[in-house]
Backbone:
């Protein structure tokens, strides 16, 4: 179903009964929009034992919902098919469309929360983007699966049920954008994909999950501390600043950095070794890039931890910014938004990275 189309309610009709004044009954279920974008959760293969050789994004949102009849006892569902892609092909234009649609839904009195089905490959990037740009306190929950819908023991149906359960929970209000996966609830800022195949592929390695969801019960163990959603200055606009990522490794050269600078990029995030350390050849190229107006952010290719300022490079002298605990991909998201919001200079941008 196209965005903005008529809604489909899968809740039992008696949840929609109204009093004589026309006010919905007090026991009416929460109204949750489910936005489908494709991914493995909407994937299909010819063989139920095949969990890698499938086509992503071929199952429509209505079929995803039909596979989870228990949703009728959790929420009234408004489904929309936003896209049907493999999330490895996520594009900036689709990010714009998705963020604008989420904001429109959250502004509506007819919607109590939003669930987004997504591919796992770029889920953490999309989630963090929305975490910084959604302008509402209603729950927004992303979910996905590691096995296609056609697979034996597909994990998508339970993840979808749990995501809707979280979105329908009062406890999820004001927590920013969340990811519900394998019974855990993660903050969009913290969660990363950690496995190529396991059903518990998403983890918040540095500080742990926010809580859990199981058998209809939602429990949060902690709250999100850093500003998000309505407390950020970031908005989705028509233009995205060009920010790219380079990696430091043994024997690395400056070729990639020089090529990106020549192409006119506005920012470069470097996935450094260890505490964001950078091969001497690449570091010199990045230092030269700064003198030409390119913003450089040091992150790390290591799976967890944080990059300390001046810990592995003379950041003050070279004009570098450090990403803290953000991995290179999330650091790119934040840098694009910061540049689009008018952020300039290493000092101001470092303050943004320290804050978010």
Residues:
């Amino acid at each position: 179903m196209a965005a903005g189309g008529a809604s489909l309610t899968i809740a039992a009709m008696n949840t929609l009964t109204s009093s004589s004044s026309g006010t919905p009954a007090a026991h009416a279920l929460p109204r949750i929009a489910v936005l489908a974008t494709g991914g493995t959760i909407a994937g299909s293969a010819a063989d139920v034992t095949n969990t890698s050789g499938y086509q992503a994004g071929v199952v429509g949102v209505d079929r995803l919902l039909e596979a989870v009849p228990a949703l009728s006892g959790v929420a009234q569902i408004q489904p929309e098919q936003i896209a049907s892609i493999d999330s490895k092909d996520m594009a900036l234009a689709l990010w714009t469309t998705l963020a604008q649609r989420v904001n429109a839904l959250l502004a509506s009195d007819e919607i109590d929360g939003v669930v987004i089905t997504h591919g796992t490959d770029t889920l953490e990037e999309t989630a963090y983007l929305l975490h910084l740009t959604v302008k509402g306190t209603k729950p927004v929950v992303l979910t996905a699966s590691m096995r296609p819908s056609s697979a034996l023991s597909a994990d998508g149906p339970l993840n979808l049920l749990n995501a809707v359960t979280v979105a329908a929970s009062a406890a999820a209000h004001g927590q920013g954008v969340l990811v519900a996966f394998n019974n855990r609830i993660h903050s969009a800022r913290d969660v990363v994909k950690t496995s190529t195949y396991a059903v518990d592929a998403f983890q918040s390695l540095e500080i742990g999950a926010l809580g859990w969801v199981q058998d209809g019960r939602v429990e949060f163990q902690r709250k999100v501390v850093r500003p998000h959603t309505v407390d950020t200055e970031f908005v989705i606009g028509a233009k995205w600043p060009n920010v790219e990522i380079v990696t430091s490794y043994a024997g690395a050269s400056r070729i990639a950095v020089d090529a990106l600078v020549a192409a006119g990029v506005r920012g470069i995030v470097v996935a450094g070794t260890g505490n964001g350390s950078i091969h001497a050849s690449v570091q010199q190229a990045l230092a030269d890039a700064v003198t030409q107006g390119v913003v450089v952010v040091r992150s790390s290719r290591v799976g967890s931890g944080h990059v300390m300022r001046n810990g592995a490079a003379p950041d003050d002298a070279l004009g570098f910014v450090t990403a803290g605990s953000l991995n290179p991909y999330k650091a790119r998201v934040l840098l694009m938004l910061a540049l689009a919001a008018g952020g300039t200079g290493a000092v101001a941008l470092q303050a943004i990275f320290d804050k978010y």
About this structure: The two ends are 35 Å apart (CA to CA). Residues 13-231 form a domain with the Rossmann fold fold (CATH 3.40.50.1170).
